[in-house]
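USER: I would love a firmer grasp of how sequence relates to backbone shape in proteins. This is the protein in question:
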Amino acid sequence: MKKIKAVIRKYMHPKLWRFLVDCCMFIITNRFYAFYLFNRAPIRQQKALRIIQKKEKVIVAFFLIHESVWKYDHLYKLMVAHPKFDPIIFVCPVINYGQESMLFEMDKSYKSYKSKGYNVIRTFDVQSQKYLDIKKVYAPDIIFYTNPYEGLIDHRYYIHKFPKTLMCYVPYAIMTTNYESFYNLDFHNIIWRIFSETPIHHKILVDRQKIKGRNSIVTGFPGFDQLITNKSPNSAVWKVSPHQLKKIIWAPHHSMKELNKVSNFLEYYDYFLELAQRYQDKIQIAFKPHPLLRLKLEKDPDWGKERTDAYYERWNRLENGQFENGSYEDLFLTSDALIHDCGSFMSEYLVTGKPSLFMIRNESVMKEWSEYGQKTVEMHYQSRNNKQVEDFIENVVLNDKDEMKEKRTAFVQNVLLQNSTVTASERILRNLEHELFS
């Protein structure tokens, strides 16, 4: 190894060599720090717990990044009504697609939750270009994260910066595959509580985590709560039409060229516009892409920003079409069907009771499922070509031949809702009450 280093250094520019050395030291230092946090976490958590138990009021910080992955709405409202919790939503910067995208997402999320009357705070001031020091100014007792990935949220708000704070996590979607990044990052092993979606997901954590699921508690998925408690959804999220149209959501994923290439967008982007025009007196389509799809298309050499903007605008110009980019509970509840390739929507839409079509781009996608994912995809109609998509629209949506309805209903009650009489958010709150106040 010494000889190899000597040869490399001999033919490499000194500044480049220094850069590589610095990079290596940074990685090694970060791994040592993560290992330190990993081993110290239980001790620090017990100490933080004892401090909180003496308080009259517990400050709970919700770290929001994208509005579309917010699953804490019902829990936030429960905490607002609770005498011992003081919940605050902090809109945190997402940095992996540049500052323009970061500011757009932050502004969009802030305005959305401010309009609802929520206690929401920006973490970045555009005028001063300064970031809010949450730990110093607000000193939260508990932090709820909406995403586990380092390098997505600004480093000032990642888990490593709050080692003495109790931290909780609800997955941003019910995970359907066995990817290591869903279950066994430093994040999953350091965090105080993971509120798991189902017993199957808890078992995966036990099998895959370094700490064998000791921080996992099965509560159900809070993302369902808004769907099962909202008895009067707002149908005004759809364009008004003089015809009685069936309402279909098309939700393509962003993974067009990476991972298992699950997204069908590049193969179907023109076809869905064609369907909207051909069935204009029978259906209306809401184009509900993953938030990252637009950013990836703008950077794609075959698309770029101008072509991407033009395509998205075409949906808004259709009389029976629209582009959606925000919260989707009302859209789901007032729709008639979902056509998608998005793992995060696989479970949530089933709760509505409506039929769903999962689009399969290549068979490798069908080999990636976890035990839970396999069960869930079996509750979907499936397509592998244009004709099967149109057959779903004709037979299931327009002619109401929904042969899987009873099977889906049983799956929702037994697996997704676990036959519980209370919501997942209520179960999370009860667990926190027991831990903090008993």
